[in-house]
Amino acid sequence: MTQPTQLPAWRALEKHRQEMAGVHMRDLFAADHQRFERFSLTFNDLLFDFSKNRITEKTLSLLEQLAEECKLSAKIEAMFRGARINVTENRAVLHIALRNRSNRPILLDGDDVMPDVNRVLGMMRRFTEAVRSGRWKGCTGRSITDVVNIGIGGSDLGSRMVVKALSPYVDPSLRVHFISNVDEADLVQTLFGLDPETTLFCIASKTFTTLETMANAKSAREWLLHQVRDPGAVAKHFVAISTNSEKVADFGIDTANMFEFWDWVGGRYSIWAAIGLPIALAVGMDRFEAMLEGAHRIDEHFRTAPFHRNIPVIMGLLGIWYDNFFAADAYAILPYDQYLEHLPDYLQQGDMESNGKTVDLEGHPVNYSTGPIIFGQPGTNGQHAFYQLMHQGSALIPCDFIAAAQSHHNLGEHHELLISNFIAQTEALMLGKTFEEAKSELEKEGVTGERLQELAAAKTFRGNRPSNSILYRKLTPETLGSLIALYEHKIFVQGAIWNINSFDQMGVELGKQLAKKILNDLGGEDLAHSHDSSTNALINRYKALRI
Ligand code: G6Q
Fold it and tell me: What is the 129 CA–ligand 1 centroid distance (Å)?
């Protein structure tokens, strides 16, 4: 494919960027009272307001033209049809099949994948109901009170994020914990106080070879066996979620207790598969399926809505506008919802692991920016920390504000306070404060002379800082499913425009290989000398200090 930067729409966007250089959003709003109506979309009860962006109708139409020139529709269709769009790994990308609640056949090499998807969903239902009802017994006949998921990256972040997000729906008699870090502190702290007789471990690993997960799983098995002293206990206290039945059996887990998924599910897209088992254990299978339903509705929207009414397409294109035409290389995710505490981390992986690539689909180096740095944390905490840079710093950081109109609780004014901050921040970022406004406020306080000039300059906010607002009725399982799917497809859109493979992760694979090599070097008495001088010195210094 032609490099996107060579396409007519890209060139036109470069020119248009110049036209937009002096345009301030406050003037765009003042000149057009219909701006919100023009630049907002709704999907069921979810509002996507993108009017506070540095765009005009022309910007959008050029971005849509870019999507067309990059053959976005054909690329979307190829994913849904089961084409092997993950070219480096020669795999299809079918997380959309996992939540295909319509059950229409999705063919992979001529075979419908839906019977397998439904079979595993049925197995998850039977198992989660047995555990949640207390019918599933540990090795001494007691019911399960604690579930510990052991996994990392895509086998951890999603279920961790969703279990937290759906806390109001969690059955308090079954606590769900997560261990991911190979740092023993993670395991020791999590298992402290748990009773092995009532603890169930879910070992979540697509490959079942990941160093961190395997080390944690082995230590968890030792912890169990040390206390119950019955090797048969593993069958009652360990289940596996994996694509690798051989390795699962080698570890000693009965493959009857293995929840399967497939190589066409990428790790960071796997919460919809059995990797979501801890979610289903925490909130029940009906709610897990409601989350699938919410995602499926967005899949249908993404697949069928015209670009100008397609929320993930617009989200993706706006990201391209800032990343490639304003050199905005960071992007903030700001949920005004404590239950979405882990959403920024989750989307950080989803986005940065998918689009952090510098070769295109044909293996050529790219000469344009791909993928911003994603960061964020729940509002209002961030307002008292990094928002300063977003308001007055030299970097342009577009952001998404996310909130529910209804809280799960009803504690006085808290929710109104939260939402007033959510709305106020988007307004302040957009409007800013002019020097004149700052000066007049200071004059009213009696400040004069040079001090007035200095202070007014410091209190000036240029504004014109873009944000999207996503507002929905309540954070239900269904809404959460929709929200996550919106971001997955946004990432897809950007990968499609940048002509990169959003579905491999060679950087992760490299880390996995390198750690194994260094682990060998840490083992013996000999000094390391096969690396660069810094790496050798770190290894040798560690060996000297550990005694
Ligand atoms: C996700 C990545 C990566 C992966 C972890 C765990 O897309 O591939 O985060 O999920 O490295 O891998 P396993 O599930 O194989 O243990």
Answer: 27
